[in-house]
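SUBJECT: A protein chain and its fold
Encoding: whole-number codes for local backbone shapes
RECORD BEGINS BELOW THIS LINE
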Amino acid sequence: MRTDTPGPETAGSTWARSHDYTARGLVRPRSVAEVRDVVLREPRLRALGSRHSFTDLADSPGVLVSLDGLEDSPTLTGEVVRVPGGMRYGELAAWLQERGRALPNLASLPHISVAGAVATGTHGSGVGNGSLATSVTALEIVDGRGELVRLEAGSADFAGAVVGLGALGIVTHLELRTSPTFEVEQTVHEGLTYADLREHLTDILGAAYSVSVFTRWADEPDGSVARVWVKSRTGTPEIPGATLATEPHHVIPGLDPAPCTEQLGVPGPWHERLPHFRLDFQPSVGAELQSEYLVPLDRAQEAVDAVRSLTDRVRPLLLVGEIRAVAADELWLSPAYGTDTLALHFTWKADPDGVRALLPELEERLPEGTRPHWGKLFATADPGAGYPRWDDFRDLVRRFDPERRFWNAWLDRVLG
């Protein structure tokens, strides 16, 4: 087992430098046995994924445990792939593609770890596509007693443990449902006005397999408010009020499109089109903050009107916003629990004071039933109010981690 001191060359901060970790050390176990040893040895610890969060969610007053050194590889049995938790989605996707298999969806960034993305309910887009966590059929967790616990779909604790916020233990392996590989064409559609966005929003989001609307919420000089990124398995659909782009774009207007996945309707394998960014480039801009709110889909117009009403406050802080759809699921702490959702994402400039001052006002205007993305910035002091199984999850945490080995300041604020 390797042990490092947090710093710029190890795990000193989140990927966007939005939080400096305070943990006293970083360990990289090479086996599940070593994971169990560190849990039994350390009174306080947390799993550290690929650092693609923006808060102290993964921090610890003790040590951080990274699984990127786990000496293990994926295995495919029929339609199910068993994956080490520290593996990144981009690496797993390429491995599956070589074997003729695919995952139903991917997030915007292929750089994120499988265990970390699942634990926070991270998602891609598509009215028929659930979050990444909905592909999980089993997971293996080293709990607070150092025991390796296996949970399978249908078992009593499974639905509560999948989106587990790292509070139950260290997820060493997951099993994911796959499908035969498929091709996707990506196109960008320009010139969408706010009137067309509002009137046709649900139709636009359902126009293809995966759809993202990128907007800065204020009218651009040409009168438009958004571009629509369409990822289709069946050809290029028409987008009401928009025209087909003839050159590639970055999701943030004005930036070099090279880091983004191929556009212009050129067919390609699923894993090279469903993410917005290529694995071998830095995603987005790097120095940024992010927030995201998931709203019941039947309140979509109300939600976009709420953000539009704050344009003068939002626009000066915003690099770009994104609107997506996520299908409902039954995972207790999934932001899409029990309802199809509209996801309102905000990539903010690196202005923490400005963003923190805005978030309470933004959250106040969003519709009832809105839930924040766990890995991003939010202001609400009572996020559990929107989750019917919140108290059940807290009981689950007490059973899996009776001595609070995996507890940290973030969980203290959120779970209490």
Confidence is low (pLDDT under 50) at residues 5-9. The domain at 183-379 is CATH 3.30.70.2520 (Alpha-Beta Plaits).
